[in-house]
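Entry for the shared binder. Reason: the reviewer on the internal report wants the predicted structure included alongside the sequence.
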Amino acid sequence: MKPSRIGTRGSALALWQANFVAERLKQVAGIECEIVRIRTSGDHLQTAAVAKPLAEYGAENISKGIFIKELEDALLTGSVDLAVHSMKDVPTETPAGLAFPAITQREDPRDCLISRGGRTMKTLPYGARVGTSSLRRQAQLRHRRPDLEIAELRGNVDTRIKKLESGEFDAIVLAMAGVNRLGFAGKITQVLEEDMMLPAVGQGALGIETRAGDAEAKNIAAELDHAETRACVTAERALLRKLQGGCQIPLGALAHVHGGVLHLEAAVFSPRGSEHVQSSEEGSVSEASAIGERLGAALLEAGADNILRMAGRSIGQGS
C-alpha cells in the first residue's frame, strides 16, 4: 500500500493533530504517512498585522471554511490524500467530491480558563481583562460576568499563553483539547464545565477528509473512525445546520452518549450575553442527525432566530 500524504495547517496544534493521525494509521494499518503543510486563509487572518475580530470578516466567509479551504483544494487536485481538521472549523456542508470517512475519538470538549495569579471565573477581579477571539465565548463570559472587559485575542495556543504571561490579559479562555494536546494542561486554572460555558460544535474532535472516489484513502482513514464521537458530532452539526450558522455564531452545544441514548444540550446567546435561549433533546444514537434538527427547531421556536439576527447586526457594526 502506497504512503499517504496528509495535508495540514502549519500551527503547532495542527501539526500535532496530523502527526497523531499519522502515528495511529501506522499502528492500526501499517501505513507510512508524509505530512504536507498548507497555509490557509484563516492562518493569514490569525497573523494579520492589524487584527480585528474574526467574526467581522463575515459570516459567509467563516461558514465557507477559511481554516480548511486550501486543504480541501489540495485534496481535490490530488496534492494530498488525506486532510486533518478540527471539526469545529469544518462547515456543515462538505464540498462535492470530498468525504469524511473518519471522526476520531474526542478529546475533552470543554473550555478552560488560564489566568495570572490562579484566579477563577468567580475570583477574577471586577473589570478584569479576559482574552478570546470566539463570539461564543465572549457572549457566555458576558452572560456570567458582565463586568469583565472582553478583549480580542488572536494567534496560536502558545502565542495566546505568551500574551497572557506578558501581562496583556488577566485571563484567557481556550479549548481544553488544544491545551492538553500541546502539553499545557498544567497551566489550566479552571475547567469551565458545560453549565458555565457550552463548547463549540465539534470541539475536541478531529475529522479526516478524503476524496469521495479514493476508496483506498477512505478505507485507510476509516480505521480511525470512532462511532460514539461521530454520533455526537453529527447531532451537533445537524443543530448548527438547522440554525444556518457558521463557527462564529454565539452557539454553544455538546452531545453525550450514555447507555445508547444521545443527549444534546445547546444554547444561543446574544453578543452581549444579556439574552439567551437554551434547551436539550435526546434519543437513540441512530437518530443523531434528527436529534440535532429537532433541537434546532425548538431553539428557533423559543426565539433563537431573533437573537441570531441581533448577532448578525452586531457583527456587521462591530460589537
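Summary line for the report: The domain at 227-319 is CATH 3.30.160.40 (Double Stranded RNA Binding Domain).
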